[in-house]
Structures are given as structure tokens and as C-alpha cells.
Specification:
This protein is of the alpha/beta class. The chain contains 23 helices and 24 strands. Its EC number is 3.1.-.-, 3.6.4.-.
Length: about 800
């Protein structure tokens, strides 16, 4: 149940339906939009939403869907049902096109067995009668005309007509050439009058030719004559044409009789086309709104994540602006959300977003919010928005509001969603406030769910002290005096009446007088709210900054983890290399000893040669000893301090100490920050810092990273926040690799991603310039980034 009847108009649902109508391909689809209902059956609604979600997947990621010839065949079926009636050639042609689309649709889903179960259920158990098409195809050609061989009689008549026309034309040509030769014919050629071929003859020679005069020129100087010799032949052609028409009617009547038994099946096919067009339209609109299917609950519940007002989203999309997303939760703890804050701060948009998305959902439409949003079902939606004063009913604005409040109190229950804008206004606040508070208390006792907006302080205090009610406010930047359009749950907001008045330029004298006239208690409350709003703004900004730092920290930890894994692997390699080297030294030493002994034996222990061999052996032993001792020599450890240049003991990687504590040090290795144990570091002089990284260690890691890193990133289809996250990682790695040029694929679309990317890249001092790719290679769908 929706109350009042114009809920769709007040929440903007009528505009959504108009957008949906424009997405339909057929009149029957548009008619189905007009018949949309508020659905409270959980199973039915879940099925309709799932069908739309599946069709959205088809439009976005599957092969093109057969979307031509969604023709309304209802009137053809109604015509077929009448005994003795027959369909025309055009009617059968339309029926052929519609049936072809039906069979293509069924084949499309059968080729994707079990991939789209909810859509397949639309034609489950439906007979596929290809015989209808075969019967029609035997009579009607692909151009929608009856085939000459549709029957032997028709074929015979058509041949006779052709022969008669040919003979008539042959004789007429002879007579015409003779008339020209005699000078009887006027300038021109054979023409047609009253469907008959005639000769243009000069009026003064009309007596010289026998025939029937059909017409004359405007001046009367030329008459159009049908010679008597071809008159009978033309009459024969006319008779044959009538005979042909009678045969065609007989054939079409027989074909209609053949199709008539399939009338119920044709109605089913018509219903399938109608539903498919309607679901396709919902999916198409969902893509434009970036809508998705939330988690559906069979209870009155609502938790929206990154929700956007659909009409505002489309409007901002055209002007290349972004909508601030809404996050709100309505459950048993906070059944009624009381939203306060300054005028033009977004309170009404917040409330209408909740109401409109709930209406769209319970009409079977996907909503512009994250897919992990959770939404339940309400049996009633009660709305009080705008001025409903009535001259005819003798109702003032406040009387109209009170009338609605009366109905709300009577009709509302646990399964009701209430939307009230500017709750309690329209009369003296001294009396309107308490009445509104009483209504709110009764609604809360009935466990009604809803969103209300207000400026009344007594309602804010009541919500703060009452279980089931939750204060909320729209954040306001009181430094720049402008709304932020962000909903903050848990605290009421100030109306910022004096601050906004001051910004607008209301004279100081007026502001001072106004402040004197309001009570001290009210001033204290409003001042407290303003201070609270300022603190909320600071907390919000701090939260955003912490999230950015946390994201950066996670990235650094991930990089550090990869670096550690590489170092561990490299250490193992060095150990293996050292073992292999030691084995080679031992082999070389053994070989040297063996050769020396062989020389001594060959020289038969000659003293001089033996002495020389021993000297060579001692020299080689000394060299091997120096070679073996070199890797294990260590310098005496020097104390470390912040700012010292150090290198990792087990590699040639160097860096500078940024932070230092007892056991750990934070060192800067190029663009990368890394936490390393102090006992793994060795102090070096700044002049010893290598200008160019030697091969091995971190340099090898960089080479591997550079080899696996692509200077091109594709962000098409990403949301703004996701895109910026990927872009930041991409830029960090590019700068660390020392690249000079990058390519960012963002597509054309509405240009939103392109603008967002270029605005974001301006914060990088290393960016020299940004430009579009060459038109032949993508144009303004690709941004080329030149780095300094």
C-alpha cells in the first residue's frame, strides 16, 4: 500500500518510470511499465530482481542479445480467432518477424543452459512450434510478399497475366510507332491512365485512331487513347488480376485456418516477448544508473551502502559531476532516523533517496547502490512531502499535514516505512513541536521504520533520549560555510541559521537583534550543536586521512614482504654459491698437489726441480687461502644514527636511516621504505654510496620488477575510488622504476574518468605533462603521461 496516491510523483518514481519507458523497444513493453505494481511477495520480488540482474549480465558481458522485431502480435491473434477472417500478407510478415525473434531468444538461452536460470524459467515448458514458420514461409517470401508458387492456380494466373501484358505491350508498341510515323502522336511516350497503358495523341488526329479516350491534357491539345486493338487484351489482364486477388485471398484464408489452432501458443509467445522487452529495459536502465541487486531480506530492514539518488546521478553524469554517496541503516536499534542540519544541506535528498530506492526495489528494479547493501520488504510506504494545502477542501498547509499524521498513526505498523519532510512545520513552533513529538512517540511505539527531517530542537532531544530513535545530521563545513552532503549517524545537526544569514550578507544589526530575541538556552543548544558539528567535521577529515595512510602502509608492508622473500631466496643462493666455490677450491688444491707429486716423480727427486715445485705449491696455497678468507672478513661494527648511509650485510643494497630504535631501523631504499633489523646493517660513508646500483641484491629485484611491470594501465569500467587506488599503486611503481612515459586507458564515455585521472595526477610533482593519445591510436580515450 502506498499513501497518498501520488507517492510516485513526490518521490520521483514517475520520472524513473518514464526513463524506463524510453528503454523499451515495443509498445507492449511500455504498457507493462505503466502496469508496474508495489510488490510485497518476497519470492516474486526475488525472482523479478534476479531476472533483471541476469539480463544486466547478458548486456554487459555476453554475446549480443536478439533485440530486433519486438512486435505486438496480440491484435493478429485476435484477428485469427474470428472464423472466416484472414491475415494479410503484411500481417503474416509481422508474425514471421515476431516468431523469429521468439525462437532466437529461446535458442539464445538454451545455448547457455543453467547460466541464467531465472530468465530460462520464463519459457520453461513452452512448446516451440517451428511448423508455424514453415507454413508461413511456404506462402510468404522474405520480403513479405506472397510467393508466385504458393498454389498451382496462382502460378497459372500469374503466367497468364504476364503473357497477356506482354502481348498487349507488343501490339501497343507497334501502334505507337505507326502513330509517330504518321505524325499523329504528341511528344512523349506510352503512359498510364486509370491503370491502363495509353498513347498520347494530338487532339486534331483523334478521329484517325479507333480506341477509348481515357483523359486529355490541361490544354486540351493532347488526348490519351487506348487503341481498340489492345482494349480487349487489357480487359483480359484486368480480369486475370481479379482472379489473382481471389486466389491470394483463398490462400491467405487457408493459411489463417492452419495457424488458428496455435492461437493460445501465439498468445504465450506474445507474453514472452513482452516480458523480455520489459526486463531488458530494466537491465539497460540499471547499467546507465550503475545499479545492482542488493541482498534481499524478508523483513522490514534497510542498509544502504554508497547509495545514489538515480535522477541526481543521471543529471550530474551529464554535467560531469559526482554524487556524494549515502550510507544509512534502519533496523530495530535505529528504527526511525531523525535527520537535522542546515537548509540546502541535503536532508530532503537523503530522505527521498531512501524512499525512491525502496519503491524501485519493490517494483522489481535494481538500485544504484553497492551489491552488498541489504534491503527488506515493507507492506506500506507512507509519505508526507511538500505543501498539500487545498482550496477546494478548505485545508491549510498545516491542516493537510495534520490530516496525514492522523492517517499515519492509524495505518502504520511494524511493516511500514514512513517518510516525513520538515516534520512539525506549518504552525507556531511552540505548539507544532510538541504535537510532532507526540506523533513521533506513537509511531515509535508501533515500531514503525522511517526517515524524518526536522529543525525542531525538542525532536532532536527526544530522539537522543528515546530507544528506537536515532539522530543524524548532514555534515557542514563551517569554515567555508558550505554543505558536504554527507550523512552522519548518531548526532543531531545545527541549522546554522545565523552563520548562513551572515554569509548571505544580512546586516550585522539585524543579526544582533535576532540573537537578543532568542532565549539563552536555545543559543547554548545551537552553539553546542555547531561545536559538535565542527568536531564531527574534524573527526571525518581525520578518518579519511587515516584511511589513506592505512592504505599506503598496507602497500608498503606488501612491498616489504616481497623484498624480504627475495632477500631470503637470494641469501640461500649466496650460500649455495659459496659451497660450490669451496668445493671448486678443494678440487683445485687436490689437483695442484697431485700435479706437484707427479712432477717430483718425473724429475726423479731432483733437488732443484723439487724445490721449485714446492715453492709453486706454497704460492698457490697462499692464493687459495686468501680467496677463501675474503668472504668471511667483517669490519668492526660501528654505532648507527639517523641520517647514516648503510648497506645490508648480506647484499649490496644501500639506503639511508630515517628512523631508529633499539633493534629495528627504517631505511629509505630509493622510493621504498623498509624496516630492517639493526644487526643486519653496516655503516658506510656517504661518499661510498654507489652512484649506480651494482648487479645483484635489490638491483636484481628492480630489474625483475621492471621486466614484469607494464607502463600501461587499463581503468575502464572501474568506479572512481577503485580507479584512484589502482592508479596510485601504478604511479608509485612507475616512479620507483624511473620510467619516463606512461599510458592510461580510461575510454571516452562521458569524460568523467579522464577528468578525475588528470586532476589526481596534478598532485605528482614528477609529472611533466599530460596529453591525449594520437587519434589513430585511441585519441582522448587514452592519456599519455610524461614524467620528468
Amino acid at each position: 500500500m502506498l499513501y497518498p496516491e501520488n507517492v510516485g510523483e513526490k518521490l520521483g518514481f514517475n520520472d524513473i518510470k518514464e526513463l524506463l519507458r524510453n528503454e523499451c523497444l515495443s509498445l507492449m513493453g511500455k504498457n507493462l511499465v505503466d502496469k508496474m505494481q508495489f510488490i510485497t511477495n518476497f519470492e516474486l520480488l526475488n525472482k523479478l530482481l534476479s531476472q533483471t540482474a541476469e539480463f544486466k549480465e547478458i548486456l554487459m558481458n555476453d554475446a549480443p542479445f536478439p533485440s530486433a522485431n519486438f512486435i505486438d502480435i496480440q491484435y493478429l491473434v485476435n484477428k485469427i480467432r474470428i472464423e472466416g477472417a484472414f491475415l494479410s500478407e503484411e500481417d503474416f510478415y509481422s508474425l514471421t518477424l515476431a516468431l523469429t525473434t521468439v525462437f532466437q531468444t529461446i535458442r539464445y538461452f538454451k545455448d547457455r543452459e543453467e547460466q541464467y536460470p531465472n530468465l530460462q524459467a520464463l519459457f520453461e515448458g513452452m512448446a516451440i512450434e517451428q511448423k508455424i514458420l514453415k507454413s508461413i514461409d511456404a506462402v510468404i517470401d522474405p520480403k513479405g510478399k506472397i510467393r508466385p508458387n504458393a498454389s498451382p492456380e496462382l502460378n497459372k494466373v500469374i503466367r497468364e497475366i504476364a503473357a497477356a501484358e506482354s502481348e498487349s505491350r507488343r501490339r501497343l508498341d507497334i501502334i505507337f510507332r505507326n502513330a509517330i510515323k504518321e505524325g499523329w502522336s504528341a511528344d512523349g511516350s506510352l503512359t498510364i491512365r486509370d491503370g491502363r497503358l495509353v498513347i498520347p495523341v494530338l487532339a486534331e488526329h483523334k478521329r484517325k485512331m479507333k480506341g477509348f479516350i481515357h483523359d486529355e491534357s490541361a490544354t486540351g491539345q493532347t488526348i490519351y487513347l487506348e487503341p481498340a486493338e489492345v482494349f480487349d487484351l487489357n480487359n483480359r489482364v484486368r480480369d486475370l488480376e481479379f482472379e489473382k486477388r481471389r486466389e491470394i485471398i483463398r490462400i491467405l484464408t487457408a493459411l489463417t485456418d492452419e495457424v488458428r489452432p496455435y492461437s493460445p501458443l501465439l498468445i504465450a509467445y506474445h507474453g514472452l516477448l513482452t516480458k523480455i522487452d520489459f526486463i531488458r529495459a530494466k537491465a539497460s536502465l540499471a547499467i546507465k544508473l550503475d545499479a545492482s541487486m542488493p541482498i534481499l531480506k524478508n523483513e522490514p530492514y534497510l542498509k544502504l551502502s554508497n547509495a545514489r539518488h538515480p535522477l541526481l546521478y543521471l543529471n550530474f553524469k551529464q554535467t560531469k559531476q559526482t554524487v556524494v554517496p549515502l550510507n544509512i541503516k534502519i533496523d530495530e536499534t535505529g528504527r526511525i532516523i531523525l535527520v537535522s542540519g542546515p537548509n540546502a544541506g541535503g536532508k530532503s535528498v537523503c530522505m527521498k533517496t531512501v524512499g525512491l530506492l525502496q519503491l524501485m526495489l519493490q517494483a522489481g528494479m535494481l538500485i544504484p547502490a553497492d551489491s552488498h547493501s541489504e534491503m527488506g520488504l515493507y507492506r506500506r510506504i507512507l509519505v508526507d512531502i511538500g505543501d498539500d494545502q487545498s482550496i477546494e477542501s478548505d485545508l491549510s498547509t498545516y491542516s493537510a499535514h495534520l490530516t496525514k499524521m492522523k492517517n499515519f498513526v492509524e495505518m502504520a505498523n511494524f511493516h511500514t516505512l514512513v517518510m516525513i519532510d520538515e516534520f512539525g512545520t506549518g504552525t507556531d513552533p511552540q505548539f507544532g513541536g510538541p504535537i510532532a513529538e507526540a506523533v513521533l512517540q506513537v509511531l515509535n511505539q508501533k515500531k514503525v521504520k522511517g526517515v524524518l527531517t526536522t529543525h525542531y530542537s525538542n525532536l532532536k532531544l527526544f530522539a537522543n533520549n528515546t530507544e528506537g530513535l536515532e539522530n543524524a545530521s548532514m555534515l557542514f563545513d563551517n569554515v567555508h560555510m558550505q554543505p558536504m552532503y554527507v550523512l552522519q549517524i548518531g548526532k543531531p545537526g545545527s541549522s546554522y541559521a545565523f552563520e548562513i544569514a551572515q554569509k548571505i550578507g544580512l546586516p550585522e544589526q539585524v543579526l544582533k537583534l535576532a540573537k537578543v530575541k532568542i532565549g539563552d538556552q536555545q543559543k547554548k543548544v545551537d552553539t553546542l550543536l555547531v561545536d559538535l558539528e565542527r568536531e564531527k567535521k574534524q573527526v571525518y577529515d581525520t578518518k579519511v586521512e587515516i584511511e589513506k595512510r592505512q592504505k599506503r602502509l598496507n602497500e608498503l608492508l606488501e612491498e616489504n614482504k616481497k623484498l624480504k622473500e627475495y632477500f631470503d631466496e637470494n641469501r640461500k643462493k649466496l650460500v649455495n654459491d659459496a659451497k660450490q666455490q669451496a668445493q671448486d677450491i678443494i678440487k683445485g688444491a687436490n689437483k695442484l698437489v697431485e700435479n706437484t707429486i707427479a712432477e717430483i716423480r718425473t724429475a726423479k727427486a731432483d733437488k732443484e726441480q723439487t724445490k721449485q715445485a714446492r715453492q709453486r705449491l706454497e704460492q698457490e696455497q697462499q692464493k687459495l687461502k686468501l680467496k677463501a678468507d675474503k668472504p668471511v672478513r667483517k669490519k668492526e661494527a660501528e654505532p648507527l644514527a639517523v641520517g647514516d648511509w648503510v648497506k645490508l650485510i648480506d647484499s649490496d643494497t644501500t639506503g639511508k636511516i630515517i628512523e631508529l630504535n633499539k633493534t629495528n631501523a627504517v631505511i629509505a631504499i630509493g622510493e621504498l621504505m623498509s624496516v630492517v633489523k639493526v644487526n643486519r646493517l653496516e655503516k658506510i660513508q656517504s661518499k661510498d654510496q654507489p652512484v649506480k646500483q651494482s648487479k645483484g641484491g635489490y638491483a636484481d629485484y628492480q630489474i625483475q620488477q621492471r621486466a614484469s611491470f607494464s607502463p600501461e594501465i587499463d581503468v575502464r569500467g572501474m568506479r572512481g575510488e577503485e580507479m584512484l587506488y589502482e592508479l596510485e599503486k601504478f604511479m608509485d611503481r612507475a616512479l620507483m622504476m624511473g620510467l619516463s612515459s606512461l599510458r592510461i586507458l580510461h575510454g571516452r564515455g562521458d569524460g568523467i574518468l579522464r577528468k578525475l585521472i588528470r586532476d589526481y595526477l596534478k598532485k605528482y610533482s614528477a609529472v611533466d605533462q599530460m596529453e591525449d593519445e594520437h587519434p589513430d591510436r585511441g585519441g582522448d580515450g587514452i592519456t599519455i603521461v610524461k614524467l620528468k
